[in-house]
Amino acid sequence: LATGPRQNNSIFYEIRTYDIKPSKMKEFVEMVNKYFHLRTAHSELVGFWSAELGAMNKVVHVWKYDNFAHRTAVRHALANDKDWQGQFISPALPLIEKQHNEVAYLVPWCQLGKPPKEGGVYEWVTFQMKPGGPALWGEAFRAAINAHINTGYTKLIGVFHTEYGLLNTVHVIWWNESPDHRAAGRHSAHEDARVVAAVRDSVRFLESQQNMLLIPLQCSPLK
């Protein structure tokens, strides 16, 4: 995962996670939907979601950059965009309790996907793997992901491996038609001997896992 093809591709993704003040979540989402066109005029937004289950008052958004120089230029332009600063940043900052960002690459064996239709839900799964990197756990992790894909109940959107932030972290985004469809599919997967074997091999390298059910915001390209 961490060598070869990935190093030859300069494209990376910035994952930004904001904790919003509980009493201000509705106001924040309304502001995003109203003014975020000012932000997307500067660079490509992959997706923007709010957490429904697994976390509360949290939003996650993912941005695509060609390289680090591209990000630097975008951040400079944003700092000098009076409309963006005045209409969104200034009123939005008091609504935010905490901000966190990571830089991650798509793993070489994964292309960024799209859901087959709008109206579903997204599952964001964060795996904290043992130190040692993909040279240690990469193949076992890939086998576990492929085993779930092969069941057919869920759609893989992307697999991201961190470069900046907490290392040995992998974020996996899945799409499902509904929470109930996801629950039924997970139940079937747990009874599939191929999935069980692949997961059992992968969890040898797992330190922790967190799942969130996400709902796309109106401004999100991934809906």
Automatic annotation (TrEMBL):
It holds the Pfam family NIPSNAP. It comes from the Eukaryota. Residues 13-111, 122-221 form the NIPSNAP domain. One of its GO terms (biological process) is mitophagy. One of its GO terms (cellular component) is mitochondrion. InterPro entries: Dimeric_a/b-barrel (IPR011008), NIPSNAP (IPR012577), NipSnap_domain (IPR051557). Belongs to the NipSnap family. This is NPS3A protein. It comes from Thalassarche chlororhynchos. The lineage of its organism: Eukaryota, Metazoa, Chordata, Craniata, Vertebrata.
